Structures are given as C-alpha cells and as structure tokens.
Amino acid sequence: MTDTPTNPFELMMKQAKDMAKAMNPAMENFSPKGFEALWPTMPKEVMEMMFGNTVNKDGLDAKTRLLLTLAGLTCQGAQADAAVRQTVRHALEAGAKKQEIVEAIGQMSVFAGIPAMTRALELAQEAMGDNKDEDQ
Predict the structure, then answer these.
(1) Which of 10, 15, 30, 119 is a Cys-bridge partner for 5, taking CB atoms 3.0 to 4.6 Å apart?
(2) What is the pTM of this model?
(3) What is the reported pLDDT for 120?
C-alpha cells in the first residue's frame, strides 16, 4: 500500500508540504500562530498603504476593507483562528469600534450560520480582550 494521496486536495497539500520542506526544513512544522506572534498588528499607515486609499484614492479605507475581510473570514466558518484575531486587531488599529466589529460578524450569521458567527465572535473577543474602547 502506498501513502500517495488519492484526492486532488490531499495531493496538493502533500506537494506543498514537500516543497516547503525542501526549501526550508523548518517549514515542515510551520504554524500560523508563529506568524501571528511575529506581526500581531500592522501600523495604520502600513494598512492604508497596502489595503487602503494609496492605490485607489477614492476607494475603501483600511477600516472598511478589514471589516469586509472579517465578514469573509466569518463566512468561511471562522476556521482560520489566527487570521480572524489578526484582522480584528488590525481593524481596531485602523479605527474600527468594537461595536462595528461585532456587527460585521453578526451580520454574517445570515450567510454563514450561527455556529460560524459564534466562533468568530469568540475569536474576536480574544483579540479585543486587552483593548479598552469606551465608545464600543
């Protein structure tokens, strides 16, 4: 019996892992939590440059883009814990209020379901734990 994956997704994941291991043996045990610790929050200026109005002067600002990103992550079932927590921290840094974050997640219950919304809210609460926001 061979350990070659039979479905395309498993094969793709195995190939990616093998490639990462060949390029850098330490990548075999990569964890998104390590990346989260590396850069927990981008400065607002960096977010505006990368995700805000730098490229499209009349486009969405970083706060709005991050709230949309949070909604998308919630719709995916809030499966990417580190991504949800980082997005919440970045949204706060970009000027989002806690209430806006809760509303963005709550609105997705219609599309993603109550379990996904609940999980995203739990992750958001973790990320907002140390942030004092009187305006909520």
Answers:
(1) 10
(2) 0.62
(3) 94
Q: Is residue 43 a contact partner of residue 51, using CB atoms and an 8 Å limit?
A: no
Q: Which two tokens stand for residue 91?
A: 């949204």
At residue 19, φ and ψ (nearest 5 deg) are: -65, -45
Question: Is the separation of the CB atoms in 94 and 47 below 8 Å?
Answer: yes
56 pLDDT above the threshold of 70: no
How far, in Å, CA of 41 to CA of 85, rounded?
A: 10
- Rounded Cα gap, residues 114 and 132, in angstroms: 27
The pair of three-digit structure tokens given for residue 22, joined into one six-digit string: 């060949």
For residue 23, what are its two tokens? 């390029």
Rounded to whole angstroms, the Cα distance separating 81 from 37 reads: 13
Least confident piece of the model among 11-20, 104-113, 118-127: 11-20
Measured CA to CA, the distance from residue 93 to residue 134 in angstroms comes to: 15
- Whether 25 contacts 33, CB under 8 Å: no
When pLDDT is cut at 50, 70 and 90, the band that residue 59 belongs to is confident
